């Protein structure tokens, strides 16, 4: 009697092993296909997605210096860009100075949608703010100020004296 019970347990374990193995094996092509679709997006498609997602967060995100709290949508400028770009599989460091060293340099005259743009908003000549270029002379950023706390769209020309550099990470 004990022999039959042990035999049933061994057969059950073997069947479970086969089912689990088949599940894992069949899931791998799906995961690979998903990664392939993500990787096959062009830079322009990713830039459109980054800008669209950033725009969708207007009125939902709050600005707080030194904060990176995705669960409550409370960010400083660089944790906001980090959060938005992560949705497109781009890993940015936290901090505007750190982000200004990622990707490739882009001249102001060659800006494209999705480029990170860096400014000096408090100490002249020192990077301490970042935004996302949207095209047509506009950028989106998370900031605070008079009657503002959160994601806004600004004219780059209004920040021309504060502009420092840009980087392309897409």
UniProtKB/TrEMBL annotation:
<comment type="similarity">
    <text>Belongs to the peptidase C40 family.</text>
</comment>
<protein>
    <submittedName>
        <fullName>C40 family peptidase</fullName>
    </submittedName>
</protein>
<feature type="signal peptide">
    <location>
        <begin position="1"/>
        <end position="27"/>
    </location>
</feature>
<dbReference type="InterPro" id="IPR051202">
    <property type="entry name" value="Peptidase_C40"/>
</dbReference>
<feature type="domain" description="NlpC/P60">
    <location>
        <begin position="44"/>
        <end position="170"/>
    </location>
</feature>
<keyword id="KW-0788">Thiol protease</keyword>
<keyword id="KW-0732">Signal</keyword>
<dbReference type="InterPro" id="IPR000064">
    <property type="entry name" value="NLP_P60_dom"/>
</dbReference>
<dbReference type="Pfam" id="PF00877">
    <property type="entry name" value="NLPC_P60"/>
</dbReference>
<dbReference type="InterPro" id="IPR038765">
    <property type="entry name" value="Papain-like_cys_pep_sf"/>
</dbReference>
<keyword id="KW-0645">Protease</keyword>
<keyword id="KW-0378">Hydrolase</keyword>
